[in-house]
Amino acid sequence: MTGSHPLLDALNEAQRAAVSAPLSPTLVLAGAGSGKTRVLTHRAAWLIEETGVAPQGLLAVTFTNKAATEMRGRIESLLDIPGSTLWVGTFHGIAHRLLRRHWREASLPQTFQILDNDDQYRLVRKLLKEQNLDEQRWVPREVQGFINREKDEGRRPKHLQDRGDPTRRELIRLYDLYQRRCDQQGVVDFAELLLRSFEVIRDQPPLADFYRHRFRHVLVDEFQDTNGIQYDWVKLICGASGVPFVVGDDDQSIYRWRGARVENMQNFRRDFGATVFKLEQNYRSTGVILGAANEVIRRNEDRLGKELWTAAPGGEPIRLYAAFNERDEADFVIERIREHARNGLPLASAAVLYRSNAQSRSFEEALVNARIPYRVYGGLRFFERAEIKDALAYLRLTQTRSDDGSFERVVNLPTRGIGPSTLDRVRELARAQGVPLWDAAQAALPSLSTRAATALNNFIELVERLALEIDSLELHEQVRAVIEGSGLREHHAREHDTRGEARVENLDELVNAAEGFHPELDDDLPLLSSFLAHASLESGETQAADGRDSVQLMTLHSAKGLEFPTVFVVGLEEGLFPSERSAFDLEKLPEERRLCYVGITRAMQRLYLSHAESRRIYGRTEYRAPSRFLGEIPAALVEEVRPRLSVSRPLYDPDGARHPGHRRHASKATPDTIKPRQPAAGEDTPIRLGARVRHPKFGEGVVIRYEGNGANQQVQVNFEQAGQKWLMYAYAKLEAM
Questions:
Q1: CATH number for the domain harbouring residue 249
Q2: Residue 489: domain span
Q3: How far apart are CA 690 and CA 3, in angstroms?
Q4: pTM summary value
Q5: What is the pLDDT of residue 545?
Q6: Among all residues, which ones are annotated catalytic?
């Protein structure tokens, strides 16, 4: 569009084209840092001011209350109108507003209440108890997750088939019981808000006609994060005559684990015959950083496709650090942060991004030792996490039975059938006799029912047995034995979702923390007692308060939507990032690459990437190859901070296939000059690199690396089931396939 207009003058050419697009279905493919929120709000203002759409006839939907508030505020300031006239909100907020207006049609009481996540969990647990179902077999979080996933896909129990699977049949039955109970109590959970509002509009044609006429223009932010029911909801509201305007970035779709469907971007273009506008000019990062991001994401197929660029090309090279281990990696990051601080840069300008929450511990420890304030963004400090506190409570009980807080915390965790009435009896005895809960529990046994007494006695015997078993073990072995013996690790492993995986990773990291623990020189306590005291002190240390200058620590998922002058993306190793479960999964690997793309594009001026040659995992040293994502970044954009011989780095040929075993010997090497490392003369290595082999214990895998020679030669194999393993070649009994 030519000519000047107050709403368009501050926009670039691509933004202006999108904002003033014709009144037809529109998809704006907005790259990272390209001004998508500005385009969305200016489009709303444009529709109201230039096309005559009434403010109350506009529906704008996003994913967070913060984003909705920001969107409403921007539109208000652009047009100088009261925000109360606008329907701007989250999907759940808009759905709630609709149900409050149409509670009769939705078969809900006028005063219906909303169950939050914890309320829903408690209701599921209550149902399981009423059905006499063992929580060890029917994990409440798994049942809750099943119900929410089916609702997110728009499916009621009557729509589901058990496919001959008795477990699925029982889950469907529980879903049906749960929904009946919610209806009886007049409550709705978060997933129900969307599903129920969708059903009401779908099944009431007059309502559908009313809202399609009122909200002819529907604007949706972060469209790549929509799930099944949200996409169907948008289609239903728009109908055949609506004019949807959606903004998103398929390259930043990183929430499949919670139902997001990146394919909704492609589906929208097809279902609505939408015109596509691309916002590719980035206002955040340097040309070097964008070059790396473009090359990494290019490996993903089925993209809508775009190329980020900046008007100010160039910038500092990306620094790559190959650490000896996770401590060396943390020390490197801390030293660089100190260096930036000495140069006058605020601590808050630096962010450390990691794939797994458990990785925060080594950085927290290093920052505490360096007396540098930090904040764990969107999460808890390591020693404040629930699963860590649970493990520490068991450990404390093995040392001090009179610790009432620890007793209360884990007496029925994992669930072992010790109910509230049993605990009330124990508490009464403790108060009456003035003794710890542990002593009261033993005294209460004769007065309890057989079932309750057995459950309580089993807990007492478990703690006593653990105390005996760990007495002569090394500290980290004590921690490992208690985590496993208590059932905590197995309990969280059964959750089968990202939350359970994260908790298991955190428990594994607690073992590493114990192994690396060194008490103060004048500390004459037993090592376990000293470690427990250290954990309490660490937990008691508060994070830097909001507003205080502090280093930011966060997962890559939490970093989406944020930006920092200096970014450290750490732990770039195969099996960690990408994760082992994703490395060979055609659906999960592209999302891992998108997550890497998100991490890279958080950096504005300086980007550091690091990996460790060895890393302690659950008390064991593992040697992992550098992440394939490092090999996808052009060598010309990378400067190795400490180049040295034998620094591993995977390479890729043009179609993206990984060549295991490559090494980078100098920072100036290019893909054409790097050759695979072949066994030296005299090495007895009849199995070539890249060959498929079979191991009697670990099964089938691929040889990816050799180290040493002669009798000391080791071989690294990436096994399909067991992951990457280092083996002594002479004793490995590997069979070529």
A1: 3.40.50.300
A2: 383-535
A3: 61
A4: 0.74
A5: 52
A6: 36-37, 221-222, 252, 602
